[in-house]
Amino acid sequence: MAYVGRFAPSPTGPLHAGSVLAALGSWLDARAHQGRWQVRIEDVDRPRCPPGTDKLILAQLDALGLRPDAPPSWQSQREALYEQALQRLIAAGLAYPCACTRKELAAAQSQRERHGELVYPGTCRPENGGLRGRPARAWRFRVPAGVVHWQDRRLGPQQQDVAQAVGDFVLKRADGLWAYQLAVVVDDAEQGISDVVRGEDLADNTPRQILLQKALGLPTPRHLHLPLVLAADGQKLSKQNGAAAFDSSEPLQALQAAAAGLSLQGLPPSATLPDWLHAATRAWAATIAPF
Fold first, then answer.
1. Handedness of CA 14, 18, 22, 28 (dihedral sign)
2. How far apart are CA 288 and CA 154, in angstroms?
3. Residue stretches of the annotated binding site for L-glutamate
4. Which residue numbers belong to the known binding site?
5. Which residues are part of a known binding site for ATP?
6. What is the pLDDT of residues 45-104, one digit of tens each?
């Protein structure tokens, strides 16, 4: 299988140290495997995406020398594909409408909370009474019983019982927007992504995506989840906790900091940007776990 990788930022703010690390790691993995690298702007949650941020991110990537092998794509231009996938799941009995509000779920006796996320107890499953005459708010995926096993190239063997840990998860939200899980699965398949390289905080999404891939008859990519850049309080560095945009006038400095976070050794302390990226590609190939 030919290698096709991707970097898929959400344009809720400019790239910072953590997202530069993810971008560099995905780019290096593609280059080390003589593959192709794509950029996908994940703007499916449009209210959280300030106008112009997508263009800013693309300019930042260009300043870093991380240039895709095909024109960038935008999730907001791909919604017809998500609708087709949802209809396939509905026709197969694998998706159903849900009338529950978050307040109702929080009040449910069987509710458990996981990472701040409500674990869905199956209230609106057809066998549990369905909508009970109430209007549908969202669409959920019917999670099968059983444990999902998968292999991460850095983290090793992984597993999760999605039914117990997450429950039936949302495919289309009450506000009409598409959920991340469905959009990313459809996009990865349609774009021929063979390898997903992203931050370790997203590893928890992988079992849900594997279930959707199986339900839709789509291939499951290989996975490599990268270490995170942490803020002073030990939390993941993110736009939500005030992560500063990297200085695009000093791209090599930003890349060197990302390489340190990826534990790449033996890189030249000073070099032109192309020469540094070439050396980093060799270091990645020698350091990071192969397929």
1. positive
2. 8
3. 6-10, 42, 180, 198
4. 6-10, 42, 98, 100, 120, 124, 180, 198, 239
5. 239
6. 999 999 999 999 999 999 999 999 999 999 999 999 999 999 999 999 999 999 999 888
